Amino acid sequence: MSGSYIILTSLIALLLVFLYLSWVFVSNEIDNKKKTEKRRDFLYTASYALGAVGIGAAAWPLIDQMNPDASVKALATTEVDISSIGPGKSITVLWRGKPVFIKRRTQEEISKAQNIKLTELKDPQKDQDRVKKPEWLVMIGVCTHLGCVPLGDKGDYKGWFCPCHGSHYDTSGRIRKGPAPTNLEIPKYEFIDNNTIKIG
Amino acid sequence: MSEEKYIPKSKIGQWFDSRLPLLSLAHHLREYPTPKNLNYWWTFGAILTFCLITQIITGLVLAMHYVAHADFAFESVEHIMRDVNYGWLIRYFHANGSSMFFLAVYIHIFRALFYGSYKTPREMIWILGMFIYILMMATAFMGYVLPWGQMSFWAATVITNLFSALPIIGEGVVTWLWGGYAVDSPTLTRFYSLHYFLPFLIFALVVLHIWALHIPGNNNPIGIEIKKPSKDTVPFSPYIVVKDLYALIIFLIIFAGIIFFVPNILSHPDNYIKANPMVTPSHIVPEWYLLPFYAILRAVPSKLGGVIVMFSSLFILMFLPWLDTSKVRSMVFKPLSKIFFWILVIDVLVLGYLGAMPPEGWYLFFGRLATIYYFVHFLIILPVLGFKEKTIPLPISLSKPVLDEQIDLTGTKSINNSEILK
Predict the structure, then answer these.
(1) In terms of CATH architecture, what is B32-284?
(2) Is B260's CB within 8 Å of A9's CB?
(3) Is residue A168 among the annotated active site residues?
(4) pTM for this model (two decimals)
(5) How many Å apart are CA A103 and CA A85, to the nearest integer?
(6) Which ipTM score applies to this complex?
(7) Which residues of B touch A19 (CB under 8 A)?
(8) What is the pLDDT of residues B177-222, one digit of tens each?
């Protein structure tokens, strides 16, 4: 913070010097044209360049203020108690304003997800790479097509189905059919203990 | 305007310009002939334009994070200060920006007073400027209410209560302004809406102000009419542009110094306490730029009288072009007026000081004295001076006194005009 305004102040001071000099040269119509013109060009270029940097530096806070603020970033992790989820059931929790699906998969669903040839997939990815424990599938419940929330236990592959434009996901959340380009995204998460997941 | 008609060089330019003369406008602004002797007091027009635009931009940004509701306004301002990226910078810029805006506008107004810039044929510029000034005060006041601190709340209460002084309709008007029986959320939301809108109205008036300026052209420190364009003028670009930029940067250095090192020097600590309709702070004062008028308000020992006198002190300025009967514009040539000008400056500063003091004892006495003098200056001294004062002879052109000085150097003895230059 202090660095930013030291830079800003010194920029303003430098700009001041350049502007003053350019003003001096403009107001003194010296005969020696060639020489002064070169100097003048240098001064013009230098002051324009510095001016551009200064305006850029001043514009940055106005742009950055629209990025997620400290209070939003403070909500970047969510802890979830998963002890009450039965086999085959799933819950949806909110993490950074987005729904996250936490599904406790049945043995059948796991084997279905694992025993598939990667060549059949639109976005090839092993089921093992998408989970930390095969029983628990944790993924962001936002369709990779245009951001709708897919419905659970629906679609041709008994996984998820997006009602907006008809994307079908399998029991590993991988895209199988429809317009979505990639699999459902896996957030950063970890198991704190057997009953608690920390997302983010 | 005594300018040649501008015709763009390219075919496309001609096609465009004959349909929408933006190129002609740009050319006019570039070549606009300005008196060559404009001093740094003339740079405040550009500084004020900068202030208005930056206030609008930073305000637009703050509006993205601010919540206009009695329950959330105070917290949302703290949220801006603590959480939003660079929120502290943007808010301090906006809050101190209003003070810098008023500082510049006061210098701008007193420059006009000193050099007689309000006199014919520039009355419209002056009147438009006064409207801008009044709108600025309204906007600043409503902006001050938005953080919903103690000072905000009680400023809103006191200022809106001014209208209760009106006979018969007073109470009704105040209730209408509040949208309730006290200052509360409905008041806050309408102030927010108007605080957002008024700057655009000011912007429109500024366009008219500049338009009206470009008809007769700038006044100048000597205050004589000059031929445009002539040897007495220089084109606006680059001469005035660079001079304005230079002044603007010095202004910005002071501005930056306040924002980065003493951002709260012009505000009151009480405004960091959330609004409480049940407790009034022990000593409430408006922002510094409203203090002279506050002193005038309190100098009158009657509720309605105080309000009338205060508004008169503002509206009297609208009639200044006709109250000043002098034929000569610049006070450079009016030695007596010059003295009274500085007395007026001191009078206004004294009023400002007294506005910040409690209205009792000697403070009140001097407040009344200064208030009376303020009106005496405009209603008696100015009109009489115009007839009575013996002014110094005016030069024929801006270039003339320079020639005189050259004659001076060769040994011919001094002429009044060359002394004027110093």
Answers:
(1) Up-down Bundle (1.20)
(2) yes
(3) no
(4) 0.82
(5) 8
(6) 0.77
(7) 242, 245-246, 249
(8) 999 999 999 999 999 999 999 999 999 999 999 999 999 999 999 9
